[in-house]
Amino acid sequence: MAEPSQDIWRRRAAKLGWASTLLAAVALLILAASIWAYVSERFGVSSDSALLFDDPQWQLWLTAAGAAWVVAAYVGVAALETAAAMRVLSPDRPLPKQQPHVLRVGAAGAGAGVLAADSLMTTPEWPASALPAATGAVQTVRCTVLLPAYNEELVLGHALRSLQEQTRPPDRILVIADNCTDTTVAVAREHGVEVVETVGNTEKKAGALNQQLRRLLPASDARDVILVMDADSTIGPEFLEDGLRRLEEDPSLMAVGGLFHGEPGYGLIGQFQRNEYARYQRLVARKSGRVFVLTGTASLIRAVALSAVAEARGELVPGIRGNVYDTQAMTEDNELTLALKTLGAKMTSPRAAQVTTELMPTWRALWRQRLRWQRGALENIGAYGLTRATALYWGQQLTLAYSVIALNAFLLLSLITLLAADEFAPSRFWTVVGVIFVVERLVTVWAAGWKARALAAPIFLELGYALFLQACFVASLGQVFTRKEAGWNYVRREGLALVVIVNGILLPASVMQTDWYAALAQFVAINTLFFGALAIAHMLPAWRRHE
Q1: Do 113 and 151 share a domain, yes or no?
Q2: Whole-angstrom Cα distance, residue 227 to residue 128?
Q3: Among 40, 36, 102, 110, CA closest to 75
Q4: What are 303-349's pLDDT values in tens digits?
């Protein structure tokens, strides 16, 4: 019986992505194990011993590794072709063609594994392109602002003024009042903008946006652009002029995302967040405006792209067909970014797209926000699986997990050394490494001003902030694995007390002579070299690709 086609593309992409990665990992493990076993057996034997490739004992293992690589390559090609088929918003999508036959391991007789040539899956019909017909002429776009607001009477006026002070004003501003019980509606009307109120919405921001987009998108055409903006954010005066100009000059460009930085105030916790956002802006700029997350604080998106996402829900991307935003996602902006990337949308975040957004005023509020961000990111990539569009995001999460291990290993080694050493001697290696990290911290926030530099200079302050963010990551992993219901009722975390200790009296110095201490020190040294190299790379001029 033919497989149902509703979500065949989405499941096919995820299965092929995981299969190719697993096969490649198996090939590496087999190859590494065979070489390790061979070297261990031949260690100390005379030089006239048989070579690895000539030894019949290991030929089977090498053949298995090679076969796994071949299968991984074929499955990888199928995964890439599946991803290409799903890129309905890309003008560079190739023409449909027959999927290649791949090798798969099947069961024969009593269950013996054999290699057989077959199609991995029945190739469904390629989805149609979602791009409008090219006109060949530059079209002047029309900008409609959607500004969802829930009890935002204190900040809504600032957001609306930033819109009205644009060098190129929007054509229409719609404030979506979502179950408001304050004077949000009155504030919006005082500023002369349109106000619509949600009806029976229980799905928060995503549901409020979906309700209005269902009304707007059917009457839109290729000229329409939607600015989705938070009510607690403001945009720079040239945001719309620059973003709309880019969309007019490049018909293949589907979205322009904002680069956010934090509002002033809130003391030390506010500066920590501003430093973090400054480094993010610098990272995006070094990547020539490549979008990592199409921020919900303020982003311009073509109406045709939003319509394509709504049509693709359930078949090409997760969610309910007809919804632009996935109401099950905790971080709807991150999920929409993955949806657009899966569909092949071209996006950018230029320097002119400046957004000022609210900061979390307390550690409790920051904990809740980052826990939601981290958990949302993990759940989003879990829903999409490992695909061409999500590979970078899986890599980021793995890097975060590894950084937790690396940083805490360093702190553990430092603590043990402090408690066990009778005396300390200067180390040229650690001095040089420390200088590199301090300089990197300063360089990456230099443009943010003297307050940012003052916080970055004593590196241990930002080290503590990094530990806080890592704790959020670990907690989000725990919630995902335990399937804890999402919510905001978290217990307030108590601060850590400072304890004054004297080196060398709480642990015996012999601890530093043990094998496990040596192994820990080697692990930390390797990690330090790796992250030191990354720090140097962050300070070097960005590599620019010539187009």
Answers
A1: no
A2: 26
A3: 102
A4: 999 999 999 998 899 999 999 999 999 899 999 999 999 999 999 99
The reply to whether 165 falls in a domain is yes
Say if residue 111 is in the same domain as residue 149: no
Q: Do 411 and 527 sit in the same domain of this protein?
A: yes
Q: What is the DSSP secondary structure assignment for residue 351, as one 8-state letter?
A: T
3-state secondary structure 231-255: CCCEECCCHHHHHHHHHHHCCCEEE
pTM as predicted: 0.84
Q: 179, 198 in Cβ contact below 8 A? A: yes
Cα within 13 Å of Cα(270), Cβ side:
12
Structure tokens at 501: 């200790």
Pairing type for strands 234-235 and 259-262 reads: unpaired
> Burial code of 3-13, b = ≥16 C-beta within 10 A, e = fewer?
eeeebbbbebb
CA terminus-to-terminus distance, the chain:
48
Q: What are residue 299's phi and psi, to 5 degrees?
A: -150, 140
Domain count, the chain: 3
User: pLDDT by residue (tens digit) across 390-436?
Assistant: 999 999 999 999 999 998 988 888 888 888 777 777 778 878 888 88
| Residue 77, CA distances (Å) to 64, 73, 81, 89 in order | 20, 6, 6, 21
* Gyration radius (Cα) of the chain, Å: 27
What does DSSP say about strands 259-262 and 224-229: parallel, antiparallel, or unpaired? Answer: unpaired
Q: Give, to the nearest 10 degrees, the angle between helix 515-539 and helix 428-443.
A: 40
How far is Cα of residue 274 from the mean position of the Cα atoms in its chain?
19
